[in-house]
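User: Structure please.
Assistant: Input sequence and predicted structure:
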Amino acid sequence: MTIKKGYELLKENTELKSELLFVKHEMAQLKRMLYGARSERFVSSETPLQLSLDIAADEIQETEKEIPTIKIEAHDRKQNQEQKIHPVRQGFPEHLPRETIIIQPEGDLTGYKKIGEEQTEVLELIEPKFFVKRFVREKYVNEETGKIIIGDLPPRAIDKSLFGEHLIAQIITDKYVDHLPLYRQIERFKRSGMTLSSSTLNDTVKNICKLLMPLYQCLRDDVLSDNYLQVDETPIKVLDASKKGKTHRGYHWVYHAVKKKLILFDYREGRGREGPEELLKNFSGYLQTDGYQVYDAFAKRNDIILLGCMAHVRRKFDEAKENDLNLAENGLLLIQRLYIIEKAIRETTSITDEEIMRLRKEMALPALHDFELWLKMHLTDTLPTSAIGKAIQYALPRIEKLKRYTEQPYLQIDNNLVENAIRPVAIGRKNYLFAGSHEGAERAAMIYSFFGTCKLNNINPQQWLADILVKINDTKTSELSNLLPANWKVLNQ
């Protein structure tokens, strides 16, 4: 066999091995999708934080403080059952109205004296029923001048609308928070004895969104005035009017102003960079994203500092466990160290910004340095097309962006907060499948922005919407920000 022929066989063998590893990884991914819910929670076969990095001792920076480990003791099933503690049933909230029903013992009570009573409470619900609110506007005439006066109607969100503001708020909340499409709401209303047409409900939602547009623009300006945004995008199917029965793949771009606790959904017809570049043209500050290449264009701007997302890095290593369990677990343990530090910081009450920065400098930065050395060491001894190779190649070029959360106390290690805001969209997609038009997707973006912000600020979205619908027409443009959820909460406390 010639040297050339041997080299060609060796090359072919290497390529086949690489392809086999790739196919195994793809098969493992398909099995996850078919047979179980994916979880990013990582439980190692080794003791947490105890692993060999195979790095020379003088290359690792030692931290002055050790991260405490949690010892978990195993018990057999029988012992666990014996020690199982049954939770005490909590009472119902005091603000709920009570209906008291007195129950006397059966039979003749002659000769008996009451010595006490026992109370049992159950939560009950009477089906909501429609009622008609009738406004009677009395007219008066001046007998001398003939002038006629009449009482003014209270403020209405939509003049001549058939629905009151509380019903409108419930319809919109049911649609965008509880993911109940309008046609299902119509069926529910029928069971309560009220027949409503789909066109009437659709027109109501459209008119309300048109009314809320200035408030949405106010929210957008407020979000973009922050100096720290987390960004992510999620697809939404939109009915394509030009192709019967076909849908278009649009995108909701989601911006989370972390410090102000605001959420902004911005609908775009595509996933290109035009959407975020247009929206963020006047933004300056920290921008935290995943590894999508569209965001790389912002690195060229002097007024924007890009942050990486450690959760996406962790996800890559979690997916690589079927490919190379040992290396994947080592990578996950190194990442786990960082999350233990952040959890300790987050759970420390009354911690100051100075203390956060000190802990990150003394503990997180050395852990990040160890992670970087480990990535560099294994970059060349893993196949680029393998799952573990892809995980390492994803993390290493972004290591500087991943470190930047240590620069400011308010920065986050990952983008999970904005991903949490996207979850309602994913749930909604399963119920209503697609938006009826691009305009419908834009309206959804507006409502998701308001309700997402309500959720961040622990506000009942239906209560907020019903209140501001009454007030918005009489609110000056300069005072619209008072109706935004966070400001509304402060004014109504």
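Confidence is low (pLDDT under 50) at residues 38-78.
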